[in-house]
Amino acid sequence: MDRPPVELADIEAAARVIDGQVVRTPLRHSRTLSEITGAQIWLKFENRQYTASFKERGALNKLSGLGEAERARGVIAMSAGNHAQGVAYHSRRLGIRATIVMPETTPFTKIHNTELLGAEVVLSGQTVDEAAEHARALAAEHGFVFIHPFDDPLIIAGQGTIGLEIAAEAPPLDAVVVPIGGGGLISGIATALAAARPGVEIVGVQSAQFPAAFARRHPEAVLAEPGRTIADGIAVKRPGSLTGAIIDRLVADILLVEEAHLERAVLQFLEIEKVVVEGAGAAGLATLLAHPERFAGRRVGLVLCGGNIDSRLLSAVIMRGLVRSERLIHLAVAVPDSPGSLAQLTRLIADARGNVVEVTHKRAFSKGSVRDAIVDFVVETRDSRHAARITEALAGAGFRVTAAEAEGEPPG
Questions:
Q1: Which parts of the chain have pLDDT scores under 70?
Q2: Looking at 131, 146, 161, which one is the last position of a domain?
Q3: What's the pLDDT score for residue 364?
Q4: Is residue 409 part of a domain?
Q5: Domain contains 33
Q6: pLDDT value, residue 412
Q7: First to last CA, the chain
Q8: What is the CATH number of the domain that holds 137?
Q9: At what angle do helices 341-351 and 384-396 cross, to 10 degrees?
Q10: CB neighbour class for 230 (10 Å; exposed up to 12, middle 13-18, buried from 19)
Q11: How many CA within 13 A on the CB side of residue 234?
Q12: In this structure, are strands 299-304 and 328-336 parallel, antiparallel, or unpaired?
């Protein structure tokens, strides 16, 4: 039988290489998330690395394995964010010139952060795949060493050190849920745990918008075309050849999650654990929210693989989460277009202990009587039951109320 591309000895060697140079991240039990999901949950906080992502582990292991001549040539990588920052940071520490090719659509903050870490950034293409083509062309032209983000034994071994830490620190676990993009993270963790904790089930999770590994395992499944996802760190169209083989051999199951579950998971980490994670970092929790029966009563480890989320995106996730939980409601109220009507409405909302965030008074856009107006309210509430009491108070006073998002005007 051919030797697997990565074995436990390779991961143990990587652990010795990166020891003291990356953070040995904490593993903590979450009492509240356990109560919410019905499973016993332990969290591995890889978002606490210096660059806020697990990618540092593989990048450092790969860079440390370069010979003097290779270091002198410089390195190049393609990435939309976390791999870029891991390569840039440790290249600077090791005195290696680094060039990073990023898609032209990369958020400004990720470009800026990568440059701050000492790398030269080149923008090319609309996708990571197009950026990869340009990176390989530059590598051939200038003699740079190409640092692949996942399909490399040293990269996989570096990521596998997370599995060693879980094996050493976690209580007996039934399963570990790991996000899958290109597959470097789950391949390394699965290899480590297969040797150190052979009874642990490894479960992969992908965004339903980018289900490449799921489709590989379930070729009969009818899947949507790739779209937009909050989990851009795992928005990879094809797993690697090395990682794909490891996933086939060691990963027990692959599950899909929708955007709503990813957004909810990001918000729950923020509100409950007081920790910021990106969409990919929230994918493990999103899996338990989407498939609670799959993990009920089991002891489950989740890898918070990164915390690099754009501030505007995080703001949108927070606001959408408030709307979904009805802690922020948007009501359209039909009122007589006469003095005192608006004051009566706001008094009713205040008496019900709602907080008016926004109010818009419409006349010209009402399809009802010319003697009526539509007043749109955005109201802050405690929860869905409180929201219902506010709506009932307005209706009980004789006002016609509906959710402002609904088609048409309030019912007569």
A1: 1, 363-371, 404-412
A2: 146
A3: 58
A4: no
A5: yes
A6: 35
A7: 75
A8: 3.40.50.1100
A9: 140
A10: buried
A11: 36
A12: unpaired
Is residue 1 in a domain?
A: no
As a whole number of angstroms, the distance between CA 185 and CA 239 comes to 11
pLDDT in tens, 348-360: 999 999 999 999 8
Distance of CA 316 to the CA centre of its chain: 14
Residue whose tokens read 């027990």: 252
Looking at the fold, whether 84 and 30 belong to one and the same domain comes out as no
For helices 259-268 and 311-324, angle between their N-to-C axes, nearest 10 degrees = 100
Determine the pLDDT at residue 202.
Answer: 98
pLDDT of residue 366: 61
Neighbouring residues of 113: CB distance < 8 A, sequence distance ≥ 6:
85, 308
Tell me how many domains the chain contains. Answer: 3
Q: What is the pLDDT of residue 369?
A: 64
Is pTM beyond 0.85? Reply is yes
- Distance CA(283)–CA(303), nearest Å, equals 9
- Determine the pLDDT at residue 238: 84
- Looking at 116, 146, 176, the residue that finishes a domain is 146
Query: Which residue in 238, 216, 212 sits closest to 150, CA to CA?
Result: 238
In DSSP terms, 409 is beta-bridged to none
Collapsing DSSP to helix, strand or coil, 300 comes out as: strand
Cβ-based neighbours of 214, under 8 Å, separated by 6 or more: 206, 221, 223, 254, 255, 256
Whole-number Å distance between alpha carbons of 345 and 343: 5
Buried b (16+ CB within 10 A) or exposed e, 183-218: bbbbbbbbbbbbbbbeebbbbbbbbbbbbbbbbeee
Contact 107, 75 (CB under 8 A): no
For residue 408, being part of any structural domain is answered with no
Strand 201-207 versus strand 27-30 pairing type? unpaired
